[in-house]
Amino acid sequence: MEAALVSGDDHLDLNMLPADVWTARLASTWGDRTPRPVEQANGSALWLADGQSWGLWHGRPSGFSGPKPLHTAFDRGGVEDLTTLRASNPALRLEDMDRDHVWGHVIFGPVTSIRTDDHAFMKACYAAYNDWLYEDFCVAAPERLIGVAMLPPHPEAAYEELQRLAKGGRCRQANLQIAVAEPRLEDPRWNPLWKLLEESGIVLSFHVTVFPGVSKAFDKYKGSPGATFLHAKMFIEQFLDPFVDLFAWGILERHPGLKLVIAECGAGWVPWVVEELDYRHYRLHECGDYWDDKGGIPHKMKPSELFKRQIYGTFQQSPTTMALTEFWGPDNLLWASDYPHPDSIWPHSVNKIAEYMGHMPPEQVRGIVGGNAAKLYGLDLAKATVKARIPMGANRAAA
């Protein structure tokens, strides 16, 4: 089977960003506070901003040698020299996409938070990253490099940045770092953002993030093999409260044009939660006579109906998700390669798709691996010059 692949979750992390992402746009205003890589005594480099370390930068050799406790896609793909910053170099990234037979990447920004207590500086940093993303990076191949803007984690700042992005007309999706977003989503301060997302047609996303609280939770177990298993709960913990809030406080129901992608949080836990929400919806309406003299029940639609209308989910390789395609529906699942993260399947995406989806109807697979993303983001896959040949059915074994 031939198909144009569009991965719904890929990355540009701090360690791979060009050195001048912020200095080119902020240094004249913010001076030495501007985020920039600073070389350390051992030859490695860290991002420093506003007096704080934001993490490693791979533009200098890390100085690390010996066995690694964590492998990324680059390790599995035989890429040894990370100083080329190939994930943020459009030409090199497109080479990696071609190697993986993938036409498009939906590209999320750094999953570590922009760390500063100065709100004005924070807003400037988010805006500068978004401008670099669209003006310097995605412009190299806008139908293939689909940049996801970063929104500040507070309602007023997020609204202001989304308003600016909407005027620019280049943004298809914007990500709210939900694990650090404050206040909780039922707060009416978020209402202008929901309305603007709906009016602009920009897709919202929640993506798993790494922030200081997560790191501290792992500190006790560092160096222990058991720490690896803690990731299984970290992904769901970040999403559960805000996911339920979308239904409990009527956010989706009040804003039927709002589309949301939940990325890299796993798809298998979602059906039970939606099923339970439907049951609670039934229990609520079972007592409708109680609520009649208290203003009635604003929740008219079943959560499962809202879910299928408005929510999309990404996954990499998941037999559980493939067993739940009837629940998710024909349009709401988005396959992802997660390049170049540790959970990534690059550069073996075609083999993994064949392994987990090769038993399914070809048209359904075409939707999941690219067609659904094309509908959501307005992509024309007829223009795709890179396509994958996916072994299906009995041909999988031979492959």
Automatic annotation (TrEMBL):
Q: Where is the Amidohydrolase-related domain?
A: 121-379
Q: Which UniProt keywords apply?
A: Hydrolase, Lyase
What molecular functions are annotated in GO for this chain?
A: carboxy-lyase activity; hydrolase activity
- Provide GO CC annotations from the record: cytoplasm
Record keywords: Hydrolase included? yes
User: Would you say which domain of life the source belongs to?
Assistant: Bacteria
Q: Where are the transmembrane segments?
A: none
Gene Ontology biological process: secondary metabolic process
Q: Which InterPro entries match?
A: ACMSD, Amidohydro-rel, Metal_Hydrolase
Q: What's the protein name?
A: Amidohydrolase family protein
Q: Taxonomic classification, please?
A: Bacteria, Pseudomonadati, Pseudomonadota, Alphaproteobacteria, Sphingomonadales
